[in-house]
Amino acid sequence: MGINTNTWNKLRYTLYLPVYDLVAGRVFAKYRKRSVSLLQAKPDAAILLVGAGTGLDLEFLKGYTHLTATDITPGMISTLKARAGKLQLPVKALVMDGQQLAFPDNSFDAVLLHLIIAVIPDPVACIKEVERVLKPGGTVMVFDKFLPDGQHPSLLRKLLNQVAATLFSDINRSIGAIVSHTSLQIELNEPAALGGTFRIVRLRKPLLP
Ligand SMILES: C[S@@+](CC[C@H](N)C(=O)[O-])C[C@H]1O[C@@H](n2cnc3c(N)ncnc32)[C@H](O)[C@@H]1O
């Protein structure tokens, strides 16, 4: 985990805040839209965004009436609230650690994990929490960059990752390995940005335990 801690993330994302939308806005917009379109959720579905940042996904969530957005960085949540106001979207926005969600079991129909699994210090803790708060049959949409399942990073890549994980996001995480700690099923895994380095993945919680 190294320096990738909640304290470090809060600090660096507070610093990145003024330029965050320039870097992660337009360039990822079509993938955000695509991911939301695959949610398979009704307009009144309870939808949770973990590590929601400045709320760049919100414009694609117009029409949904039960949105909850969480992030560990208070400045991100303030910016997200302002965006929700401008879009006239009802969003409950809360500062919260994605590794310890303060919600009851089985409370959401769908969860969005956009650009958070490769950033959060402990992605397995996060996905287990998502599994817990998701209703049986519910869906999770993941949009992030992953190492292909079964591929082992080279020494050079491991070294580069020390910098990448500290300043941007981890480049050596595999979605299959992370999800394998849960009962969630990978239903879809399609290439997105950067020639498929970024993926859009749909997970579903089984109806029966
Ligand atoms: C790359 S940004 C992604 C933001 C947004 N989901 C998007 O798609 O633009 C990563 C976000 O994760 C948040 N974050 C980092 N660690 C977290 C944690 N433990 N729990 C919740 N959010 C966290 C950061 O504050 C930051 O807003």
Task: Provide structural commentary.
With 209 residues, this protein is of the alpha/beta class. It has a single domain (6-204), classed as 3-Layer(aba) Sandwich (Rossmann fold), CATH 3.40.50.150. Helices cover 34% and strands 23% of the residues. It has six helices and seven strands; from the N terminus they run H-H-E-E-H-E-E-H-E-H-H-E-E. It has helices at residues 6-24, 29-37, 74-87, 123-133, 155-167, 175-179; strands at 46-50, 66-71, 91-95, 108-114, 134-145, 185-191, 198-204. The chain has a seven-stranded mixed sheet. Helix 3 links the parallel strand 2 (66-71) and strand 3. The longest helix has 19 residues, at 6-24. The structure holds S-adenosylmethionine (SAM).
| Bound ligands | S-adenosylmethionine
What composes the largest sheet?
7 strands, mixed
Indicate the mean pLDDT: 94
CATH architecture: 3-Layer(aba) Sandwich
What's the order of the H and E elements? HHEEHEEHEHHEE
Biggest sheet, strands in spatial order? 3-2-1-4-5-7-6
The poorly predicted ranges are: none
Q: What is the terminal-to-terminal distance?
A: 31 Å
Q: What is the gyration radius calculated from CA atoms? A: 16 Å
Summarize the structure.
It is globular and about 45 Å long.
Layout of strands and helices, then pairs:
Blueprint (H helix, E strand, L loop, with lengths): L5 H19 L4 H9 L8 E5 L15 E6 L2 H14 L3 E5 L12 E7 L8 H11 E12 L9 H13 L7 H5 L5 E7 L6 E7 L5
Parallel strand pairs: 1-2, 1-4, 2-3, 4-5
Antiparallel strand pairs: 5-7, 6-7
Bound molecules: S-adenosylmethionine.
S-adenosylmethionine (SAM) binds next to helix 1.
